[in-house]
Amino acid sequence: MTSPLSTLESTLVELVASENWHDFRVDALRVTRRENTGAGRYTYFEDMLKQVLRDGTYTAQGKLLQMDGVRDGLAFVVDVSGGVINYLEMAVYGNESWDGVERQWQIL
Fold this sequence. Notes:
The chain is mainly beta. It is 13% helix and 43% strand. A hairpin with a 3-residue loop joins strand 1 (29-36) and strand 2 (40-47).
């Protein structure tokens, strides 16, 4: 069973896509699962359009995710494996913990 992306997940993938895959359709993604690590979260995707991308780890250059309760903010990357988007990873900076709950946030 899949679910829609949260507003945060959609925003982050759109930022990465705008810098790396100009014709990518974020609206074709569905979440297959979310995994909290205690210092970040993985969101795994299924792409309903099976959009082909080059394997790699992609970021939005110079962007930082600020979130209430996470002092130093979070980094985020999108992993592409086997030619398709695999997951979004969000991770705190330093030794801070994060419970994976999306609170008030902004992109800097």
